[in-house]
Amino acid sequence: MKLPRYAYFEGRIVPYSEARVGVMTHALNYGTGAFAGLRGYWNSDEEQLFLFRPIDHFIRMLDSARILCAEVDFTPEMMRDIAVQLLQEEGLREDCYLRPLIYKADEIIGVRLHDLHDELTMFAVPFARYVERDEDAHATFSSWRRVDDNAIPARGKITGAYVNSALIKTDAVRAGFDEALVLTDQGHVSEGSAENIFMLRGGVLITPPVTENILEGITRRTIIALARQELGLDVIERPIDRTEVYLCTELIMTGTAAQVTAVTHVDHRPIGEGQMGPVAAELRKLYDRVVRGRMPKYRSWTVPIYVKEPAPAV
Ligand code: PMP
To answer: Residue 302: inside a domain, yes or no?
Structure first.
């Protein structure tokens, strides 16, 4: 992966090579960081880069930081402004991924959350597809369980918790699958390794509620709104059993990285006809238009990065 040219680090934008932490750093040793992942989308007609729902991502990130007792003076708006400035400096004219991170920066030994100081960093890299076969993904139920809210809250996007996601993803990929679904300790379907899930059953779009150890996805929220408002679908949040997934007619995974991924097989069983269904296809098209600022109704979700000269008066 190409390295970024710049990073936001200790209060300013510096060349990426200067954004360095010591090996004793608390977050590196104990996983005590809270992060976010945003996408920037290039719109070639407008020659503009749009950052998708930054305020929502930064609100969630500050919530995750609060779970870690982090004390930072940033507001979501301040973080959005840093992101815009950083992306302007980086000068990307293609789809990209922005990674902000709040981390416990002290170089000390000692497992705790309190009496530590927190730093914010941010960088951006070009980024295309995350799930290679995103129109025909094959998934499996992981033998791992999703971290529980009373162990490591999945609601928080906490660096240490991503060992759970990494275990899930690696076992699935090594077994020949594209992605995995993971169950809660109670045996309900929670989410994917880094995606929320939706199934279409009886014509209704169903997704697990936020109390099923999921990350409260921004893409999930976006898809709920688009499915209701643009496709007129009923969308409900309720617990999902494993065998319901085998019997559903369509299954999609949503996430900033995975976008809208159509899952066509689970544990070698075809979902519906075993190919991408019409709802997934429609949502994929809609989502792509929305994130590139091509639907005026949803333009307020997108933040333009580059300042445009006003058209000359004639
Ligand atoms: N669940 C997990 C575990 C994730 O890491 C992600 C990616 N951030 C998601 C769901 C999807 O969240 P979002 O749509 O906000 O990217």
So the answer is: no
Q: Which of 2, 104, 157, 308 is catalytic?
A: 157
The pLDDT value given to residue 311: 72
Q: In the chain, what are the helix, strand and coil shares in percent, each to the nearest 5?
A: 30, 30, 40
219, 290: one domain: yes
Report CA-CA distances (Å) from 243 to 138, 150, 183, 246, 269: 16, 26, 12, 5, 11
256 CA to middle of ligand 1, Å?
7
- Asked whether the whole model's pTM tops 0.85, one would answer yes
- Taking 70 as the pLDDT cut, the residues of the chain under it are 314
Q: Render pLDDT for 194-204 as a digit per residue (tens, 0 to 9).
A: 999 999 999 99
Atom of ligand 1 nearest to the CA of 219: 14
Per-residue confidence (pLDDT) for residue 265, from 0 to 100? 98
Same domain, 50 and 108: yes
Instruction: Give residue 290's pLDDT.
Output: 98
Residues 281 and 155 in one domain: yes
Q: Is 116 in the same domain as 220?
A: no
Structural domain that includes position 112: 6-126
What is the best residue among 169, 219, 253, 290 to mutate for testing ligand 1's pocket, by most ligand atoms within 8 Å of CB? 219
Same domain for 177 and 98: no
DSSP 149-174: TTTS-TTS-BGGGHHHHHHHHHHHHH
CA of 309 from ligand 1 middle (Å) equals 36
Q: Give the pLDDT score at 314.
A: 67
- For residues 186 and 218, give the distance between their C-alpha atoms in angstroms, rounded to a whole number: 25
> CB within 6 Å of ligand 1 — which residues?
37, 165, 191, 194-196, 215, 217-220, 254-256
Q: Which helix (H) or strand (E) holds 14?
A: strand 12-15
pLDDT at 99: 98
Of 35, 196, 222, best ligand 1 pocket probe by most atoms within 8 Å of the beta carbon: 196
Same domain membership, residue 204 and residue 118: no
